[in-house]
Amino acid sequence: MLYRFFRSLFRVIFRILFRLRAEGMENIPRSGPVILCANHTSNGDPPLLGCLMERKVHYMAKAELFEVPVLSYILPRIAAFPVKRGGVSKESIRLSLDLLKEGNVLGIFPEGTRSNAGGMGKKGAASLALKSGATVIPAAIVGGYKVFRPMKVVYGPPVDLSEFAGSGSEGLEQATEKIMTTIRAMVKQHESKR
Q1: Rounded to whole angstroms, how far apart are CA atoms 103 and 105?
Q2: How far is the CA of 9 from the CAs of 92, 100, 108, 152, in angstroms?
Q3: Distance of alpha carbon 17 from alpha carbon 105, whole angstroms
């Protein structure tokens, strides 16, 4: 209930203040496990990435935020779960895999810090995708959070990582690079259209 409220609130805010629009929504599977992988430019990226989608998007958030009285109540109710500073714990990885096995959507910013908040380290997205079989959807957040200047989120076609399954650490590196290269290319392509 609280998730839907905040999703609607952010839709209104982002559409009015940043003229937010989305492209490629048809690329997002209606069911099954999905990992949304996007570039990271601002603290506003997590709500912006998911507010236009009908499916709930789960995110990691810094564990310290769950110690703040009001946030400790709100964050779990808006599909956020804690990750400790300085690295992703086994508990965070297990929870991420459980969410994916249950057919949920997980939002990850593979490049980590705004350009490792919300990130799992560069290899995290590829590792989770290969372990869970989740569909990887690359996303490009385009625009600079300038009031009344247009922004958009572009959801690309799935990134096929099947060639890297079972290929060890080298395959994980290559899968990660394929995801990152796809996101960078999308950002570059759509920034040039602005």
Answers
A1: 7
A2: 28, 26, 22, 17
A3: 26
